[in-house]
Amino acid sequence: MNNPTVLALEGVQKAYRSGDDGVLPVLCGADFELRAGEIVALVAPSGTGKSTLLHLAGLLDTPDAGDIVIAGKSTKGMAEAGRTVLRRDRIGFVYQFHHLLGEFTARENVMLPQMIAGVPKARARAEAERLLDMFGLAHRLDHLPGKLSGGEQQRVAIARALANNPALLLADEPTGNLDVHTADAVFAELLTAVRQKGLAALVATHNEELLPRMDRVVTLREGKIVPR
User: What does pTM read for this prediction?
Assistant: First the structure.
């Protein structure tokens, strides 16, 4: 039996204004499906719409036309409150720059999204410690981000993205700010975590060496999402 579809883009269109009267089309009726347990790489030249696609898929932006379906829920016409809940409960984000909160420890950074979602503090703490231990950071729980290496900071960011047990993980150049050796180690840990949890993951990357580890590779061409 096929795994369920976690992310579906259905006829998605998105354009931006360029200058006074111009319009820059980015997505032109794009269709795409991502299933549970599947890791797909998104590889495309800069300026072709990778970040736009991830923002739309993550409900951080709305399409001009078409629909974004998350775990079977259509978001077309959905109120922002509903989009916020869906984003919080079903989607995890990892970015090139970790965006950790500098005044909070590693443990607290991973606890925070859980507590925002209403998880009791003790349970959020235990889950944060479990995730950070999984990424080899059990000895760094009480360190502020500024006291962590780049690889450690990104590991905390990945743990934070997984904290609310999302169905969908969206990663935008998750190792792009790391040296080659650290990037390889962090990405291996990310893949292991995603595989273990059976998540659907869409990973935008320029790192060609990572592609053989993915299930599929797609690109953007003339506003469509197509196999690379």
Answer: 0.91
CB 151 within 8 A of CB 180: no
| Token reading at 1 | 């039996």
Phi, psi dihedral angles at 42 (to 5 degrees)? -110, 115
Gap between the Cα atoms of 214 and 203, Å rounded: 9
95: amino acid identity, one letter: Y
pLDDT for 181-226, tens place per residue? 888 888 888 888 888 888 999 999 888 888 999 999 999 999 999 9
pLDDT digits (tens, 9 = 90+) for 79-136: 999 999 999 999 999 887 778 999 999 999 999 999 999 999 999 999 999 999 988 8
Q: Which domain holds residue 23?
A: 5-227
Per the structure, the count of domains in the chain is 1
Please state, in angstroms and rounded to a whole number, the distance separating the CA atoms of residues 110 and 207: 27
Show the DSSP H helices in 39-198 as ranges. 50-57, 80-90, 106-116, 121-134, 150-162, 180-197
The answer to whether residues 141 and 132 touch, using CB atoms and an 8 Å cutoff, is yes
Q: Among candidates 76, 100, 213, 75, which has minimal Cα distance to 160?
A: 100
Contact 45, 19 (CB under 8 A): no
Question: CA 202 to CA 149: how far, in whole Å?
Answer: 25
- Residue 28: name the closest of 47, 42, 12, 6 by CA: 12
Contact status, residue 161 vs residue 128, Cβ threshold 8 Å: no
